[in-house]
Amino acid sequence: MANKPVYNIPIGPIHPAFKEPILFTFDIQGEQIKGVDFAPGKTHRAIEWMGMRRNPVQIAHLCDRICGICGVSHTLAFSRAIEQIAEIEVPERAHYVRSIIAEFERIQSHLLWAGVAAHELGFDTLFHLAWRVREEAMDVIEYLTGNRVNYGIVQVGGVRRDFTEDQFPRIEQALQTYEGLVNKLVTLFLEDTTIKLRSMNCGVLSERDALELCTVGPTARASGLALDVRSDAPYAAYGDIEVKPVLPDVYSDGIHGDVYDRIVVRLFEVVESIRIVRELMDQMPVGPVLWETKYAKILATCKKAEGEAIGRVEAPRGECFHYVRMNRSEAPEAWKVKASTYSNQMSWLNILQGEQIADIPIIVASIDPCMSCTDRVSVIRDGRQDVMTGEALHRLSVEKTRRLQE
């Protein structure tokens, strides 16, 4: 190995595991990763620029479009910031509606990620199963909000739609469906020999490194950090119920901070979300779901607002953070968004170090990045450049799985 030359592999800006572009640069010796760097920022959509030219009521719906998976998290974080500045008191029932939708968003996001992880490991049957059962959460979200994505339910001062009593049986049906699937999913994802071989001791992030790199969400919890905005700084209706950060030892015999532990955390967070939704339904108070039904009054209140605030929520990928400053004008004077991936992406430098090329897709995907998906890789070796398609890189991962099965 010591005599083998170190060569450079750029991956991206288009990448097989992402939906948005990012450029990785790997130093490779043989099949082992000796160094890694990455360059994000390839897909600036000017969301904040657009928001700075709109009023807060309009921005709330723009927030839904920051991410196609966790739009509620962004809308809720922004609305919380504006509501603090304008001193808007959100009705208690609206807090419960917001929390229930946020938990269903977490369920569908984690199941989507589980399917992606299975695909990266070469288990497309499991990928299709995870995405099929995810549909139940998507159907409930559509039933409650009218939309499968860009739900448009959270707005400044509350929510646009109430949940009625006759909708509760459909919610309960979905919860029971997932309760019936949990053991099957746990067995398929966590007991399969090949998944264990591919994910255990792979992409390890120690608790100390997770803390020093300021990771958040399931990525941090898989390394043993019991961090969760829902319990650390309760918002919406989370202050009325108990929220327990899920750590890997809920299933494993210890905490190792590897890819396997990230699978454990996300699967058991689905279980925790089921419990949370059921408790919220049981305790849901009666009353209005909007601070004010007239948009003109909401806009007038926001226009008079002066000051700054942050809105923090626990998105499926971790803490989602919105900073807003109002200066007695229609549009915000400043608006900055920090999504969970911004906090977690630096961990790639640690968890990819020393691993093999074939492990890149699953390790990169293990933090559930929200950036983009890749389709080709340029390999530069001995001054010669070859182009590998996303299919070829995926084949490398599948071939490694098969070698381990032999």
From TrEMBL:
User: Which cofactor is essential here?
Assistant: Ni(2+); Fe cation
Q: Provide the binding site for Fe cation.
A: 70, 373
Q: Which PANTHER family match?
A: FORMATE HYDROGENLYASE SUBUNIT 5-RELATED (PTHR43485:SF1), HYDROGENASE-4 COMPONENT G (PTHR43485)
Give all residue intervals belonging to the NADH-quinone oxidoreductase subunit D domain. 121-376
Question: What keyword terms does UniProt attach to this protein?
Answer: Iron, Magnesium, Metal-binding, Nickel, Oxidoreductase
Question: Which Pfam families does this one have?
Answer: Complex1_49kDa (PF00346), NiFeSe_Hases (PF00374)
**UniProt: Mg(2+) binding residues:** 48, 337
User: Where Ni(2+) is bound, by residue?
Assistant: 67, 70, 370
Q: What is this protein called in UniProt?
A: Nickel-dependent hydrogenase large subunit
Q: Which domain of life is it from?
A: Archaea
Which Gene Ontology terms cover its molecular function? NAD binding; nickel cation binding; oxidoreductase activity, acting on NAD(P)H; quinone binding
Q: Which organism is it from?
A: Methanogenium organophilum
Which InterPro entries has this protein been placed in? ComplexI_49kDa-like, NADH_Q_OxRdtase_suD, Ni-dep_hyd_lsu, NiFe-Hase_large
